[in-house]
Design a protein that fits this description.
Elements (H helix, E strand, L loop, with lengths): L1 E6 L5 H9 L5 E6 L7 H9 L3 E4 L6 H14 L4 E4 L4 E2 L4 H11 L6 E5 L2 E2 L2 E2 L4 E2 L5 E3 L7 E4 H7 L11 H11 L3 E4 L4 E4 L3 E4 L16 E4 L2 H18 L4 H21 L3 H16 L8 H8 L4
Parallel strand pairs: 1-2, 1-4, 2-3, 6-12, 7-13
Antiparallel strand pairs: 4-11, 5-13, 6-11, 7-8, 9-10, 10-12, 14-15
Helix pairs in contact: 7-8, 7-9, 8-9
């Protein structure tokens, strides 16, 4: 059992996550994805705590970082690989509960991944249950994935062309095509940072909650909005024929947060630009990291 943690610009939350994880696995491999110099102290502290730290000279994306660690884990004979984000803390029995799910799964279930049941207390909603009582889901966040070596061998590793965003969704869809399933670890609950919050101000009008406080929403900057839009469109095209219901459901799910970000901001103009370019690039199957020119364009104006 080996854990892989991809990092980019980690803070002290990484050390808390390592502390919660270390007693549960045989080894932890941190793959730092070209973090700026300011992250060196945190990474050095993880190294001093006995964690293996591999530093990349450039930013290759979360999928590439995960794959580097997974390859190492498999080369060292791991039967399972646990993937954990740098801002995730696991409860002390998390791994044991996930392994237990694999142990009780019947061969015909073809279990490939066990994921967390809850994120910050918010429950998943299994689509159905197996005869053994395991709740099955179609998609889950990558942080907390316990993946069997068999599943990785049959289905491959994460898609590095996506760079960031939708990496976990693509993998969930791919293993389903190979006949593998995803179950939630019964009772598991991870602490995970979901992102920045921004004031909800559609067209500049502040919205308020029932208690009178300003309403907020989960916000991603223009660069992330580009990747979210591009990679979702890419996946819609990949699965339009074989999973049309999923495509319709996923597209509907993305409409609201995309619209909210564009009309509420901050940086409404750049959010719109990122969405339009991301959709266009998704349609022509442009993949990989941002070009320096596009990165500069999306980071430009504060409008």
């Amino acid at each position: 059992m080996i854990a892989v943690i991809p990092t980019f610009g980690p803070d002290d939350g990484l050390l808390r996550g390592v502390h919660s994880l270390a007693p549960q696995v045989e080894a932890i491999i941190i793959i730092d994805d070209g973090s700026p110099a300011g992250s060196a102290e945190v990474l050095d502290s993880a190294l001093a705590a006995g964690v293996e730290v591999i530093r990349s000279r450039s930013n290759l994306g979360i999928a590439a970082a995960l794959n580097t660690g997974i390859r190492l884990a498999l080369e060292r004979g791991a039967d399972f690989v646990l993937t954990v984000d740098q801002d995730t803390e696991l409860p002390h029995l998390y791994v044991a509960d996930c392994v237990a799910a694999f142990r009780i799964a019947a061969p015909e279930t073809r279990l490939g991944i066990v994921c967390t049941d809850r994120v910050n207390g918010q429950p998943s909603i299994p689509e159905r249950y197996t005869e053994e009582g395991l709740g099955l889901v179609r998609e889950a966040i990558q942080s907390g994935f316990l993946i069997s070596a068999e599943c990785l061998a049959q289905c491959g590793l994460f898609d590095e062309r996506l760079f960031i965003d939708c990496v976990d969704t693509e993998y969930c869809l791919r293993i389903a095509r190979h006949g593998y399933r995803i179950a939630v670890g019964p009772g598991t609950d991870i602490t995970h940072t979901l992102g920045e919050r921004a004031p909800l101000r559609p067209f500049g009008i502040t919205r308020r909650r029932e208690d009178g406080q300003p309403a907020t929403y989960e916000y991603h900057g223009p660069t992330r909005r580009y990747f979210i839009t591009r990679n979702n469109v890419d996946l819609y095209l990949r699965y339009a024929r074989i999973r049309p219901r999923w495509v319709l459901s996923a597209a509907k799910r993305e409409l609201s947060p995309t619209f909210t970000t564009i009309v509420s901001g901050p940086r409404r103009g750049r959010q719109l630009l990122a969405t339009v370019i991301g959709a266009a690039h998704g349609l022509i199957r442009k993949r990989g990291p941002l070009s320096p020119g596009l990165r500069s364009l999306l980071a430009g104006s504060r409008v």
